[in-house]
Amino acid sequence: MLVLAFDTATDTACSALVDGDEVLGERVSIARTVLEDVDALLRQASARPEDIAAIAVGTGPGSFTSTRMGIALARGLSVALDVPVAGVSTLDALAAPDTSLYPVIDARRGEVFVPGPRVVGPEDVRPPDGAVCVGGGAVRYRAELERSGARVAADDSPFHQPQARFHAALATGFGPPELVEPVYVRVPDVDRPRA
Predict the structure, then answer these.
(1) Helix, strand, or coil here: 191?
(2) Is the same domain home to 68 and 117?
(3) Are 189 and 74 in contact (CB under 8 A)?
(4) 135 with 46: CB under 8 angstroms?
(5) How far apart are CA 63 and CA 138, in angstroms?
(6) Tens-place pLDDT, residues 40-74
(7) Within a domain: residue 193?
């Protein structure tokens, strides 16, 4: 089954075309170019849009705008191609390569998203014993995390970036596009009371 997977919730977007256990192609870019990446992945695999059997999309938590862009794209492609969609937590995808990984996504405003999902200050991150913190939040707040006793992967580790191949692997419960919702851990800025 040919699965198109992508995630736009973090600072860098990822996309992949996966056929069963075989990764036909992967790309890393930014949210606004994911559709171009999808086209490039299809060309690279000598596939056509109608060959796609399902879509897996990252649901965050992450940037509100970027996450919504990715889900809107997944919904639009699902309707246009008449294929089902499954949402996959960006935190789960970050942790998927190894059981020792603890995802920490930059939530801005001096906070990070961690499993739960929850939003906490970097000084309040408490990964399990032996875990290694990965993700944009782990890189940005390395000093605070290490002061709290956490281990952080090297800045150049590929584990800091979600890889869409893992979204495809984790995707279950494919269904109608309207059932895929973003994961919001805090109230969007637009809904916050103004002082």
Answers:
(1) helix
(2) no
(3) no
(4) no
(5) 16
(6) 999 999 999 999 999 999 999 999 999 999 999 99
(7) no
61 CB contacts (<8 Å, ≥6 apart)? Answer: 9, 67, 90, 91, 105, 107, 113, 117, 119, 183, 184, 185
Distance of alpha carbon 163 from alpha carbon 152, whole angstroms: 18
Same domain, yes or no: 127 and 110: yes
Output helix, strand, coil percentages for the chain, rounded to the nearest 5. Answer: 35, 25, 40
What is the largest distance, in Å, between two alpha-carbon atoms of the chain? 55
Pair 110, 138 in one domain: yes
pTM: 0.93
Quick one: which of 106, 13, 8, 109 has its CA closest to 66?
8
Q: List, for residues 135-184, the tens digit of each pLDDT value.
A: 999 999 999 999 989 999 999 999 999 999 999 999 999 999 999 999 99
More confident residue, 112 or 195: 112
Instruction: Say yes or no: 85 and 180 in one domain.
Output: yes
138, 91 Cβ separation under 8 angstroms: no
Is there a single domain that holds both residue 74 and residue 125?
no
Structural domains in the chain (count): 2
> CA Rg, the chain, in Å?
17
What residues make up the domain containing 19? 2-90+162-186
